[in-house]
Design brief:
Elements lengths: L10 H14 L2 E7 L5 E6 L8 H14 L8 E5 L4 H15 L2 H4 L7 E7 L10 H5 L2 E3 L1 H7 L3 E9 L3 H12 L3 E10 L13 E6 L4 E2 L1 H7 L15 H16 L6
Parallel strand pairs: 3-4, 3-6, 6-7, 7-8
Antiparallel strand pairs: 1-2, 2-9, 4-5
Helix pairs in contact: 1-2, 2-3
Length: 256
């Protein structure tokens, strides 16, 4: 597509990212329940980084350094929460690297930045995938920066690739062209095929082992009676559902 690798994460850059994440407490160990119900012994909570602006800025710089200078980028887009602040930092550093005048005169920075807004209150069936996708939209005030432009998508973690897909759909809906997707950590082995051929690059590419609940009882943290973490992930919901199942097993509940 470009004739060069659009995103190259040198080992030293990935190691620097790991150090920054560790310093923020983003790498957690214990017993966690993931979004799709699997259990894991490790968890990445990059939200912790957002409490440390200087480290978030450093991660943004590392990401920007990995993007090949020849890749044409007009605007950086990230989803609210995960890629919001991160996309701002990446846009800033790309301008600094590519346009020397932007270091002294920010108004000369041609690379813009926008983001998709994940609407939290809406009417519809949460199980309806089409409506779920429509929750990722680019506001009208930002659409003008995206229409007809070449777009870099930035997000913090890629697990299944579904969020990146939805951001891509939102960008295309307003007339933008996706040239590259970049994340801090690709923990689900998400490839360009998942994004319809759009290249994806990450500072860290490492799968985190996980087990379905039944298998976790045999070989995962459940087998070692490690308490489920309820502060991050979906541990709280898991325990509530487990308690309800046990209650139903003890008491016959009439079927309506």
């Amino acid at each position: 597509m470009f004739g060069v690798d659009p995103f190259t994460a040198e080992p030293a850059l990935g190691e620097s990212a790991l150090i920054l994440l560790s310093e923020c407490g983003s790498l957690k160990r214990g017993h966690f329940v993931l979004s799709r119900g699997n259990h894991a012994k490790e968890y990445i909570d990059i939200r912790e980084v957002y409490a440390y602006p200087e480290k978030l800025w450093a991660l943004s710089k590392l990401l920007a350094q990995c993007v090949h200078p020849s890749v044409p980028i007009d605007v950086v887009v990230g989803p609210t929460r995960g890629g919001n602040d991160l996309s701002q930092g990446v846009a800033y550093w790309l301008n600094q690297f590519r346009f020397p005048k932007a270091k002294k005169y920010p108004e000369d920075s041609p690379i813009r930045r926008a983001w998709t807004n994940k609407i939290e209150v809406w009417v519809g069936d949460p199980a309806d995938e089409q409506k779920e996708e429509e929750r990722f939209v680019i506001a009208d005030c930002h659409a003008k920066f995206v229409k007809g432009k070449r777009v870099l998508i930035v997000d913090d973690v890629a697990t299944s690739g579904s969020s990146l897909e939805k951001v891509k759909h939102a960008v295309q809906k307003v007339g933008g062209e996706i040239v590259l997707a970049a994340t801090i950590w690709n923990r689900g082995n998400v490839t360009s095929d998942k994004l319809g051929g759009t290249p994806i690059g990450s500072l860290i590419t490492k799968e985190i082992p996980s087990w379905p609940p039944d298998e976790c009882k045999k070989t995962g943290p459940c087998s070692d009676d490690v308490p489920v973490n309820t502060d991050v992930g979906h541990g709280k919901e898991f325990l509530e559902e487990k308690e309800m199942r046990m209650f139903r097993a003890r008491v016959e509940i009439p079927t309506l």
